[in-house]
Specification:
single chain, about 170 residues, mainly beta, 5-stranded antiparallel β-sheet
Length: about 170
């Protein structure tokens, strides 16, 4: 058995370099302060929009066997009608890949609580092409659902995030 002890390993970015599994290769982040409430009153599945644009982020993996770890933080979520809740879904390149929550913020008394959603996921896109992760929502009933509520101040000081990390394998 051999033991190799080093102080530093510099990974090459081109050609034949050292491949170290388990380390973060890159980070891509969408981080924005809420600029507008997003009201939903139908039961259609739609991409989440924060007033600036769609809530999605793209990452181009360097290795086809990399994993992508994602972190989602959304604030100001409210349901304002009795018996309503929200489904949150994660899509990759426009196709559904997993449910984040299928009954978030259930409200039985029309009290309109504000909620914060924090979620993590791991995906294996098996690609070195650009991969876009998007957050979609679907209200359970036709009552009003509010995302990015600026109830306390306008604009809200809450920052919403979709952070993606490529992890080498």
């Amino acid at each position: 058995m051999s033991i190799l002890k080093v102080d530093t390993i510099n990974e090459k970015t081109t050609g034949n370099g050292v491949h170290i599994s388990g380390h973060v290769v890159q980070v891509q982040a969408l981080s924005r302060v809420s600029t507008a409430k997003h009201h939903f009153s139908s039961t259609s599945t739609v991409i989440l929009n924060d007033g600036v644009g769609s809530f999605e982020q793209t990452i181009t993996p360097n290795f086809s066997n990399s994993k992508v770890v994602g972190y989602i933080n959304l604030s100001g979520i409210a349901v304002t009608s009795s018996g309503n809740s929200i489904g949150f879904m994660l899509y990759r390149n426009g196709s559904f890949i997993q449910t984040i929550d299928n009954h978030f913020g259930y409200n039985a008394d029309e009290d309109s609580d504000r909620h914060h959603l924090s979620y993590q996921f791991i995906d294996e896109p098996n690609s070195t092409s650009a991969v876009t992760y998007s957050i979609y929502i679907k209200p359970h009933t036709t009552g009003t659902v509010v995302i990015f509520d600026t109830h306390v101040s306008t604009p809200s000081n809450a920052t919403n995030n979709l952070i993606l990390q490529e992890i080498a394998q």
